[in-house]
């Protein structure tokens, strides 16, 4: 059974950085889509970034292009999202998703 556990969220000031991690257990597929999503209060969940677990190609939402970077460390079974130049508009609960399975989310709050 696939299990995802996010960590790394917190409260930061505008312009600062955070690295989110998603620890993966039980992944058996050779190639699946993996990604990060976020949901701000009162808004629908939206995609932030995605990639295949083979590392072939990455995609980013326009709102985070040039600031966020997704990566995967297969040896450590960890998916990461490096977030730079954070703004209050990035405040949300961030979720990782692998092959349709969701983690519990981690809160990111950016103060102005």
Strand % is: over 45%
Distance between the termini: 40 Å
Mean pLDDT value: 93
Instruction: Categorize the overall geometry.
Output: globular
What string, H for helix and E for strand, traces the elements in order?
A: EEEEEEEEEEE
Structure in words:
The mean pLDDT is 93. Strands 2, 4, 5, 6, 9, 10 and 11 form a seven-stranded mixed β-sheet that branches. A four-stranded antiparallel β-sheet has the order 1-3-8-7, with no helix packed on it. By secondary structure, the protein is mainly β. The chain is globular. The N and C termini lie far apart (40 Å). A hairpin with a 6-residue loop joins strand 4 and strand 5 (46-52). The protein has strands at 3-7, 10-13, 18-25, 33-39, 46-52, 58-60, 68-73, 78-83, 92-98, 101-102, 106-111.
In brief:
This protein has 112 residues and is an all-beta fold. The chain has strands spanning 3-7, 10-13, 18-25, 33-39, 46-52, 58-60, 68-73, 78-83, 92-98, 101-102, 106-111.
Outline the secondary-structure elements.
Elements: E1 3-7, E2 10-13, E3 18-25, E4 33-39, E5 46-52, E6 58-60, E7 68-73, E8 78-83, E9 92-98, E10 101-102, E11 106-111
Parallel strand pairs: 2-11
Antiparallel strand pairs: 1-3, 3-8, 4-5, 4-9, 5-6, 7-8, 9-10, 9-11
Question: What attributes characterize this protein structure?
Answer:
globular; 54% strand; 112 residues
């Amino acid at each position: 059974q696939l299990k995802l556990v996010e960590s790394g969220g917190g409260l930061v000031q505008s312009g600062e950085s955070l690295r989110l991690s998603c620890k993966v257990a039980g992944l058996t597929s050779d190639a699946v889509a993996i990604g990060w999503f976020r949901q701000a209060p009162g808004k629908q969940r939206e995609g932030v970034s995605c990639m295949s677990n083979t590392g072939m190609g990455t995609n980013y939402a326009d709102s985070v292009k040039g600031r966020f970077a997704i990566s995967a460390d297969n040896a450590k079974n960890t998916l990461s999202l490096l977030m730079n130049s954070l703004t209050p508009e990035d405040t949300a609960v961030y979720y990782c998703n692998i092959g349709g399975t969701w983690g519990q989310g981690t809160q990111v709050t950016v103060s102005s």
